[in-house]
Amino acid sequence: DELISRVRVLGHPLCVGLDPYLDRIPPPFRRGSMTIGDPRTADAVADFLGAVIDRVSGKVAVIKPQIALFEQLGWRGMKMLEGILDRARKQHLLVLLDAKRGDIGATAEGYAQAYLDPSSSMSVDAMTVNPYMGRDAIEPFVRRAAQDRRGVFVLVRNSNPGSSDYQCLETGKGLLFEVVAHSLHEIEERLVAPQTEWSSLGITVAATYPDDSDRIRAILPRTLFLVLGYGAQGGTAKEAVRGFVPGPNGMEGGLVNASRAVLFPADGMTDNVAQWEIAFDLAVEQTIGALRQVV
Questions:
Q1: R_g over Cα of the chain
Q2: Secondary structure of 147-183 in the HEC alphabet?
Q3: Which of 2, 17, 58, 87 has the most CB atoms within 10 Å of its CB?
């Protein structure tokens, strides 16, 4: 309900991915060698992402930190992520953590508690999970989502070319990604929200495989889509929203993620902070504008 309500007010589904590739951090924010072993690197990334959060506040509903790019910096990176999450909360941004966790029993419960428990210092609004160890591997996340008003985004159809190696395997019940989608129907219904009637279950789909989004929407009509592959990976705005459906203020049904195209515009690789701000703001506005045209 919170997510869809914000998207309706803003008039677009852009989710800004926070993927802080160290070699692409703009010059005004760089410190030291910008290597993972340099203790100054985490502070540089924190300054950069802090500026990003401040500039997208009020313009987008959601940010999506990629946890691997924080983990690579060790404890400094995780401490930095904690600060980023706190800053996002203060700016009233929803946070979808791209962690792709997937394990069994108590281990999955530990991940769920670490990131979906409201009392955790690393608490986020939603996170991505991997279903390929079975339903019991995602159940702890679903229980926590139901209990604490959180979201769970399950990997179903991804945008990288290699995803088809497994997700498009033929089975006796259809392609594997369709089998996974069918298996989530009960969870979709369990997490349906009272106001918008969208589910707090989300799944990944790919702008690079738009026909598959149509097939998945037919299986999971109330599930939120996290659309990957838009922009830098070649998916167009029209392809990105293929699985969206009409709502009160236009097409709706999920989020369209953009990371590199927004974070690292070519004109933003400048030593001048003001010029970086102009380039970044323009990239955000152009991305929002393209999505508004198709929803």
A1: 18
A2: HHCCEEEECCCCCCHHHHHHHCCEEECEEHHHHHHHH
A3: 17
Nearest to 133 by CA among 125, 121, 141: 141
CB 261 within 8 A of CB 287: yes
Active-site pick, 90, 100, 173, 238: 100
Contact (Cβ atoms closer than 8 angstroms) between residue 291 and residue 257? no
The two tokens of residue 195 are 């106001």
Write the CB contacts of 230 (distance below 8 Å, at least 6 apart in sequence): 207, 236, 237, 239, 240, 256, 257, 258
Specify whether the CB–CB gap between 284 and 16 falls below 8 A: yes
Distance CA 232, CA 208 (A): 11
Average pLDDT of the segment spanning 138-142: 96
Confidence at 187, pLDDT banded by 50, 70, 90? very high
In the DSSP assignment, the letter for residue 12 is: S
Strand ranges (E), the chain: 14-18, 62-65, 94-101, 126-129, 151-154, 170-171, 174-175, 201-206, 224-228, 245-247, 250-252, 254-258
Which residues, in sequence order, are CB contacts of 290 under 8 Å at separation 6+? 237
Average pLDDT over residues 61-75: 98
| Residue 100 annotated to the active site | yes
Structure tokens at 236: 């167009």
Question: What would the pLDDT profile of 17-64 be if each residue is shown by its tens digit?
Answer: 999 999 999 999 999 999 999 999 999 999 999 999 999 999 999 999
Q: Is the pLDDT confidence value at 8 over 90?
A: yes
Distance CA 168, CA 102 (A): 20
CB count in 10 Å sphere of residue 72:
12
Look at residue 181 in the predicted model and tell me its pLDDT: 98
287: Cβ contacts below 8 Å, ≥ 6 apart? 14, 231, 258, 261, 262
